[in-house]
Amino acid sequence: MTEKKEEIRTGFYICHCGHNIGSVVDCPAVVEYVKGLPGIAVSRDYKYMCSDPGQELIAQDIREQKLNRIVVASCSPLLHEETFRKATSMGGLNPFYFQMVNIREHDSWVHTDKNAATEKAMDMARAAVARVRFHRALEKKKAPIHPDVLIVGAGIAGIHAALTLANAGKKVYLVEREPTIGGHMAMFDKTFPTLDCAACILTPKMSSVKNHPNITMWTYSEVTSVDGYVGNFTIKVRHKPRYIIEDLCVGCMACIDACVFKQKFEDEFNQGLSKRKPVYIPFPQATPQVVVIDPEQCLKLKTGKCKESCAEACDRKAIDFNQKETIEEIKVGTVIISTGFKSFDAKKLPQYGWGIYPNVYTALEIERLVNASGPTGGDVVMRDGKHPKRIGIIHCVGSRDESTNKWCSRVCCMYSLKLAHLLHEHSEAEIYNFYIDMRTPGKSYEEFYDRLLKEGVNFVRGRVAEITDWAMNKDEEDHLVIRVEDTLAGFVRRIPVDMVVLATGLEAREDAQDVRRLFNIGCGGEGFFMERHPKLAPVDTFTEGIFIAGACQGPKDIPDTVAQAGAAAAQCLALIDAGAIELEPNTAFIDEQSCSGCKSCISLCPYTAITFDAVKKKAVINEALCKGCGTCVGACPSSSIIQNLYEDDQIFTEIEEVLAHV
Amino acid sequence: MSKIRRTIKYESERDGTFAEEIMASPGCEDLLGCFQCGTCSGVCPLSIYMDHTPRQIIYLTRQGFKDEVLRSNTIWLCASCYACYVDCPKTVHITDVMYALKQRAIREGLYPSRFPIPVLAREFYKMVRGKGRLTETWLVVRLLLKTNIFKGFGMWRLGLGLLRTGRFSLAVESMKHPEELRRILDASPAQHGKKEVA
Amino acid sequence: MKFSYFPGCSLKGMGGAYETSLIAVMEALSVQLEELDDWNCCGATAYMSVDESKAFTLAARNLAIAEKKTDDLLAPCAACFLVLQKTQKYIKDYPEVGRVVRESLRAGGYDYAGSTRIRHPLDVIVNDIGLDTIKKTVKHPLKGLKIAPYYGCQVVRPYATFDHQDYPVTMDNLLKALGADVVHYPLKTKCCGGSLTGTLPEVGARLSNILIREAKRQGADLITTLCPLCFFNLDSYQDKMEGPEKITMPITYFTQLMGLAFGMPSSKLGLKRHIIPILPILKERQVAIA
Ligand SMILES: Cc1cc2nc3c(=O)[nH]c(=O)nc-3n(C[C@H](O)[C@H](O)[C@H](O)COP(=O)(O)OP(=O)(O)OC[C@H]3O[C@@H](n4cnc5c(N)ncnc54)[C@H](O)[C@@H]3O)c2cc1C
Ligand code: SF4
Ligand code: SF4
After folding, report:
1. Are A148 and A190 in a shared domain?
2. Residue A261 sits in which domain range?
């Protein structure tokens, strides 16, 4: 695909990016080197190419020096490709006559040897200058944006985003996997740092969601497939049968009383600290106020034989044992994913004794135990029936540990302080907090720490080595012994306690990888969903039109979660109000002349963008569906597929030049 | 009132390259990652006898307080049980660091007379170089003669018990061809090119 | 099943009962052990603190002999097991260490590619042979015998991967398969102080005393070990026990208990070679002795 012969006049610009590039790569030397390359009309360096004067430099040179190709060597295209394309247009040139070279992430940030880094920058510049010759003028296409929004996961993030959008007049589908919305926050008694009652601030929001005319709330449901692209997604949602007709049930719970079973099944919402029946409602303020039947436990559903006393007790005839799962298809233009987090599994650290010693608890268990509407009504009574006199709270369990999770979970220090306060308030026990560093970087958080210090909690700086019942003296017998170095005092201690609380860290949900694949977004090594840019695009993903909010993006507390949810909602609104979005023209097309109609490409396309024209006997690519992944280009046996911006001439020249000295 | 001692330390007492030198030993690379959590000292069965806890040793090494570290009884008390090694959340191989520090102390002649490890090691090396194998009883006897360390601990009673149960054999274990091993050992360079203890 | 067998100096010395019982038990399980030809001292942990590269070289000669044989190398002594594994790992992970060691080996006509697999008998018995076979071989279940399973440090740490490094259960399961009661023993991998007996006997003794006192408190009749050094330390210093009451606690090798359960004669198991006699408690619990 070569163009008619024209004189190539290329402008080359290298950016110092302050010290980011300039302190490692010798930019003036690169400028001098590039001057000697074929087709170069202008070669310059500048401190910040992305600034207004930097952009103006490009535009002016195009006008005055009659440039017809532009190369900028600077940071990542993710950050500023758009900026420089715009500058190219400003000068009156088609923006796709531009090529960017990333000498920051790929060079100056990863090397220390200045000479070698400078040489590498020259190689990369040479390759780009050679490649850009083969660029062609391209036009961006526009796609309209469907105004409805899908939100996946109805914790505080999903709830807040849904209400924001619905209040702006947009129609929202809110899909939640559990029988109730609310997420983790619904389990808490109080929230730090203000200690306001979680239910008091959350349940009004939950009922607003339920009653909002613009929100379709689907609980006990999951997204099963996602097709399409920004502005035009087709989503399939599976509704699991709850064996209750949702519209008829008013949550009177007569059926629960009537069920033939005793309360014998582990109550998930109470973290197994209490029992429930096969027909249950997760908690009194559950939304919707609708019971659910567990088919694994219900006698009727398992064996077909039961006197069905529940159905008899329900005077609204809401119980339906024949309910089947249903699939519903919807169209939306944008998506927010807010699937939250999972707590670290304390079993993985047997030295802390969870699951071995009954009086060792996880923080979530304690949240339920101190909760006024929890299994004990807020009475801190241990599994052995006793009330603790001394309690040890261990921070960083499954956080900041190369053998489990490397990262800091951000909320554990604060919730451990909260639990120290609540446990003391509910039990009068003496409290010890064991921490590595105390991390309280939030508004009013350090003040909360100060409050706890003054409340007389024993703060021991040291990572607990183990919890054991091995007794060295009479005081320790029948106690749990915490072995730790008190790193501030400089000696090792053994501290006997009655109860231990493990501040388990936050990690990605078990099915995060599935969700990631379903929506075609990215994940970091830890499994949290990846934002497009850690600072400048914290709720965007690499897939247009799909946004993330809350703890699914990384551990965070409620204030940060809500802020992100608001931001994600605003991003959706911005797209919806723009009405349409420009698409990157990096799509593939078929060269009809040479296509042999073999159909190999059709099944390979992950976006089902290729169809077969039965009349012409040629493959056809739907440009709106094509994401430019290049799979078909590589697969076509007759090389009949061409991808814009990645044409053979462009790529091969680039490779040849970058390797020219090898 | 007991005598008041000055415990202040000055910058001049630090050795700027000490940490680096220790980190050059196999296994010691992650030393700098330590965030002073104290897990190692907590799990260490011997920290209760140590003048510096393992965490402090790591810290002092990192800071270059070479004398403080090499004169510490900690490195000699370490029993190589690897409890710290596997529990350290930052993959600091503390046990390997302890080995590196012991080697260094011996090289600098800094081991306390109370810990005759070098004597033990010298006897050990002689025996292995001679016979290729170790006869534990002989090692103990030679150690007794040279250092006197079991005095006052009633070791004679143990000796009697071992004799009674047939475990205190004075027969000497040997390889068939110790000379072959000798060739290998003589070909092996002494550590760091310094003169070895044997 | 066939293994090269590395007894190490201890099993030929004070740990004789371990060797005889191990060989008897392996024979009963049809495992062939072929003693490594003219093996030498493993290098021992104490020597590591003086000259690491010579210590690695000592160990590597044994690995090289085993490599020629191509069988896995069975090392019952915990200290040898660790030193051999450490050598294996460091030769591989640190090219410079590998280079120096290989060069020295060449002087003796050896080369070592690094492929020898080092195994501990406990791992082999439970994971290769399997508890089903063990159960089938048991003739006299050790019913009523309460045992504190003591693993010590160096079998599970830091290189072995067959069990958890602080809270292993492999031997617990084996003992249960033999019909014994396993007591809760939170000190199962705490150090016995064994490596200090040569230098600081009073500290070594104190650590082993803690192990014994706690085993008693947890109701154990005896402690079982898998290392000659632990055995020696636990068995030998009980007269140094601190505290008001006198406590004694018989110590055994796990292989001796297997032999008993398999119905082997006590002469094959070295049961008389204990300072704290073991026969009385076996009689009291009515364990059949062939
Ligand atoms: C013990 C503990 C105490 C805490 N205390 C406080 C506190 O006092 N103050 C504070 O500010 N923060 C606190 N936090 C942090 C707080 O829990 C989080 O900030 C907050 O829950 C994050 O909300 P979220 O909506 O992102 O996630 P979540 O609360 O986890 O909600 C996610 C929702 O998505 C649903 N979901 C998941 N996957 C899918 C799927 N595939 N399809 C459909 N639905 C799905 C889940 O069922 C859930 O309802 C605490 C955390 C812990 C562990
Ligand atoms: S356990 Fe590791 S990180 Fe913690 S103090 Fe010891 S060496 Fe440092
Ligand atoms: S290896 Fe040494 S320092 Fe580490 S826990 Fe064991 S005895 Fe203590």
Report:
1. yes
2. 254-313
Q: B129 and B167, same structural domain?
A: yes
Average pLDDT over chain B reads 80
**Considering only residues 628 to 647 of chain A, which have any Cβ-Cβ distance to chain B shorter than 8 Å?**
none
Write down the mean pLDDT value for chain C: 91
Q: What is the pLDDT of residue B195?
A: 38
CB A301 within 8 A of CB A321: yes
Percent of chain A with pLDDT over 70: 99
Distance from CA of B83 to the nearest CA of A (A): 10
Question: Within a domain: residue A151?
Answer: yes
Structure tokens at A501: 């609380």
Please tell me the total count of domains within chain B.
2
Of the bound ligands, which one is closest to the alpha carbon of residue A393?
1
Given a contact cutoff of 8 angstroms between Cβ atoms, the answer to whether B84 and B39 are in contact is: yes
Q: Please give the pLDDT value at position B196.
A: 38
In single-letter form, the type of residue at position A266 comes to E
The reply to whether A150 and A187 lie within a common domain is yes
Instruction: Check whether residue B60 and residue B145 sit in a common domain.
Output: no
For residue B192, the model assigns a pLDDT of 45
Number of C-beta neighbours around residue C73 at 10 A: 24
Q: Do B136 and C106 touch (CB under 8 A)?
A: no
Is the minimum distance from the CB of B10 to ligand 2 under 6 angstroms? no
The arithmetic mean of pLDDT across residues B52-74, rounded, is 92
- How many Å is the maximal CA-CA distance in chain C? 59
If asked whether residues B96 and B174 sit together in one domain, one would say: no
Report the length, in residues, of chain A. 662
Mean pLDDT for the stretch of residues C13-40: 94
Provide the pLDDT for residue B126: 81
- Residue of A225, A557, A562, A564 best suited for mutating to test ligand 1, as the one with most atoms within 8 Å of CB: A557
Ligand 3 lined by B37 (C-beta under 6 Å): no
Distance separating alpha carbons of residues C44 and C49, to the nearest angstrom: 10
Query: What's the gap in Å between A493 CA and the centre of ligand 3?
Result: 17
CA of A203 to the centre of ligand 1 (A): 15
- The ligand whose atoms approach the alpha carbon of A559 most closely is 1
Decide which of A275 and A627 is more confident.
A275
Task: Decide whether any atom of ligand 2 lies within 6 Å of the B55 Cβ.
Answer: yes
- pLDDT confidence band for C206 (50 / 70 / 90): confident
pLDDT at A177 over 70: yes
In a domain, B103, yes or no: yes
Residues of B in contact with C193 (CB under 8 A): 45-46, 79
State whether the beta carbon of A449 lies less than 6 angstroms from ligand 1.
Answer: no
A516 HSE (CA, 13 A, CB side): 19
Structural domain span for residue B133: 116-188
- CA of A484 from ligand 3 middle (Å) equals 15
The stretches of A496-551 forming alpha helices (DSSP H) are: 512-519
Whether C187 has its CB under 8 Å from any CB of chain A: the answer is: yes
Which long-range contacts (C-beta less than 8 Å, at least 24 apart) are formed by B143-147? Answer: B143/B116, B143/B119, B143/C198, B146/B116, B146/B119, B147/B116, B147/B119
Distance B79 CA to ligand 3 centre (A): 6
**pTM of the predicted protein model:** 0.81
DSSP of C78-96: HHHHHHHHHHHHHHHH-HH
Q: pLDDT tens for residues A121-159?
A: 999 999 999 999 999 999 998 889 999 999 999 999 999
For range A458-475, the mean pLDDT: 93
Q: Which pLDDT score, from 0 to 100, does residue C196 have?
A: 80
Give me the interface pTM, i.e. the ipTM.
0.89
Q: Is B191 near chain C, with CB under 8 Å?
A: yes
What part of C 222-281 touches B (C-beta under 8 Å)?
A: 236-237, 239-240, 272-275
Q: Which residues in C lie closer than 8 A to residue A471 (C-beta atoms)?
A: 214, 217
Residues 6+ apart with CB under 8 A from A23: A108
- Indicate yes or no: CB of A483 within 8 angstroms of CB of B91: no
